[in-house]
Specification:
CATH topology of one domain: Cytochrome p450
Largest sheet: 2 strands, antiparallel
Low-confidence stretches: none
Strand content: 5-15%
Shape: globular
CATH superfamily of one domain: Cytochrome P450
Number of helices: 10
Number of strands: 10
Structural class: alpha+beta
Strand order of the largest sheet: 1-4
Mean pLDDT: 86
Radius of gyration: 25 Å
CATH class of one domain: Mainly Alpha
Length: 356
């Protein structure tokens, strides 16, 4: 029996998804091949294709397919290109989804930060619809905004993975650790502990301890969600009141959610743009709140006094922090497992718990 004729709906849906995804990849590759060939004719001396698909296709020696029978090895087949594209897309899907998920939860926990993010988004996009947003003119501002600081702080606190494997090459590697020269033998396996690096007070701007967790850092606030630690303010000399912002650049090797060095994540820039764009679309029009349905219905909340609403919101806040502390674990990637944190999206201006 063919899979597409199976009586099991889940099986047929998986098969349909597999076939459709393959067709999308084939169309993507065909379109890129056509673009590369046309550019080669129009501007033969220019090479502006630096995206991943173009690099994979160039490895096929498209300009001279006759080499296939000349005894010269072709680096990648069509199947190889498709396989690599599949890995690029799938590998970034789960980690990006997790970052969006945790960013939304952290902003729901911190409505005062969320309000500031929305204010900046309004200033950047000036009420323009999403269809009128521009990669060239808007992205630079977005990458230096509080929203970018929110993403970086989320990645610092809840990175995609908890350990990053590295292997010393065929020759010993000399490293300096805290001023001490060390030699790592060839082929030594090293695992970088991401959380330890991201909470090292030697690398990060930190304030006095105000930990939200009982066993958190006693002498700094690096356990806390604090996006403003990433913001650098610059005053222009021409006008004393004019300021601009840029993001804090930690020392090399101190911020490694995408790994670091030659084997760092190839999709880093794509993931950053994808996540920031998704969050910008959401928070330009909506606010996110912790759902309190476990303790009070919408009708009950609507009739509550301010102190009553504060009490019920604090119950949701306490539960959310407990789940983030106890239920985030790793199976390849770091996720909330065996539990969920309910939130609700409301149109901006209709929030129920922001005046507390």
């Amino acid at each position: 029996m063919k899979v597409e004729n199976s009586s099991f709906k889940k099986l047929t849906r998986c098969y349909d998804a597999y076939m459709e995804f393959g067709k999308y990849l084939e169309e993507m590759v065909a379109a890129k091949k056509a673009t590369i060939k046309s550019r080669a004719v129009e501007t033969p001396n220019e090479s502006s294709d630096v995206d991943l698909i173009s690099q994979l296709l160039k490895a096929q020696k498209l300009s001279d397919p006759s080499k296939a029978n000349s005894g010269q090895t072709i680096s990648l087949s069509d199947s190889d290109v498709m396989g690599n594209l599949f890995m690029f897309i799938i590998a970034g899907h789960e980690t990006s989804a997790n970052s969006i998920h945790f960013s939304i939860i952290l902003l729901a926990l911190h409505p005062e930060i969320q309000r500031r993010v929305q204010h900046e988004l309004s200033a950047i996009f000036q009420g323009r619809p999403v269809s009128a947003w521009s990669y060239d003119s808007d992205l630079k501002q977005l990458f230096n905004s509080l929203l970018a600081a929110v993403l970086n702080e989320e990645l610092r606190l809840i990175g995609p993975v908890i350990a990053i494997p590295k292997v010393v090459g065929s020759t010993p590697q000399q490293l300096s650790i805290s001023g001490r020269d060390c030699t790592f033998p060839a082929e030594t396996m090293i695992r970088l502990c991401v959380s330890s690096v991201h909470h090292n007070p030697n690398f990060w701007p930190a304030g006095p301890s105000n930990s939200v967790f009982p066993l958190g850092n006693r002498d700094n606030d690096l356990e806390n969600f604090k996006p403003e630690r990433w913001i650098n303010h610059h005053t222009h000399s021409s006008t004393e009141s004019a300021t601009s912002t840029s993001l804090y650049m930690p020392p090399k090797g101190a911020f490694i959610p995408f790994s670091d060095g030659q084997r760092a994540c190839l999709g880093k820039r794509f993931a950053q743009i994808e996540i920031l764009a998704a969050l910008a679309v959401i928070f330009s029009e909506y606010s996110v709140e912790l759902a309190v349905d476990e303790w009070a219905s919408d009708q009950v909340v609507a009739g509550m006094e301010k102190n009553e609403r504060k009490e019920v919101w604090e119950k949701a806040e306490k539960k959310t922090r407990r789940l983030l502390r106890d239920k985030v674990s790793s199976i390849i990637t770091l996720q909330l497992r065996g539990a969920h944190i309910p939130v609700r999206f409301v149109k901006r201006g209709t929030e129920r718990f922001w005046d507390l």
